[in-house]
Structures are given as structure tokens and as C-alpha cells.
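Sorry, explain these C-alpha cells?

***
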Amino acid sequence: MDKSNIILIGMPGSGKSTCGVIAAKVMLKNFFDTDLLLQGLERSRLQELIDEKGNDYFYKAEENAILSLKLEATVIATGGSVIYSEKAMKHLKELGTVIYLHLSYETMMKRINNFTTRGIVVKNGSTLKDMYDERLPLYEKYADKIIDCDNNTVEETVEMIVRSVC
């Protein structure tokens, strides 16, 4: 399969969807958001899926959605929890270059104000800091490239995405 895709992974609020759309335009690629795919397949908002069917169901549904992807020349924005599935990440790495948009915990907290409705999977009894600490090494493990987005504007992050693959 063609590896012309760019896959964006990272914490909630890192800019995967926002920067992904603009990067796709700049690089003359398509844009695809796996959260929207998952919502369409499940006919449910992400938060409703988590609340009604639980985290394990959500992870499996997300994995199945990712495994169904057969895209070329596309910037793919993933859900923040995609890194919990080794199968999904293996498939994404076969599709293209995985770029981790890194944020500090403090920046994530500043950027996100709708945690309860956004569709963020936090394990029962865990805090957002626990989620952050748990995910961080997984993002680093799967990343082909890492972009620090803490002090960047959207435009600066897009520029760094484009430069990292050209």
C-alpha cells in the first residue's frame, strides 16, 4: 500500500483536526478524521458512546474503524485514544508517517474546556493527569516524528507538519 498518508496522533487539544485540515490543503492532500468515521459507524457522538457502552466497547469500535481505513494521499487525524490499540497503530504506520503533536499537560488543560462532552476516554477512577501520564509514552512509542506544539500557533504547527514530511 502507498505510504503517502500523514497520520496525526496526540492528546486532546493538540490540534490534530484543526491543523490536519489546513496541512491537507497546503500539501494538496485529502483530509480524514477518524473520530467522525467512528461517530458515523456507531451512529452516536463519541461521549454518548463512552457513557452508554463503556470504554472497552469504545476502544474496540475505534480499533475496527481504524482497521477499515484504506486511504492514500490523505492527512488523517486520529482520536486521542487510538494508541491503546497496537493493531490500529500497526495499520496506521503501514499507511504512512505518524506525527505526534506533543503538548504539555498544562497546555492541554488550557486548550480544552469541554472535557465532559468532548468524547475523551478516561478510565474509571482516573484523573485527566493520569490519562496524560499513561498516554505520553505510547504516543512517543508510535511516533515517526514529534512536533512540540506548546507555544505554536495553528499556522506554525501546520508549517512544522509540512516541513517534517517534505
About this structure: The longest strand covers residues 96-102. Helices lie at 16-26, 34-42, 46-53, 55-67, 86-95, 105-111, 128-142, 154-165.
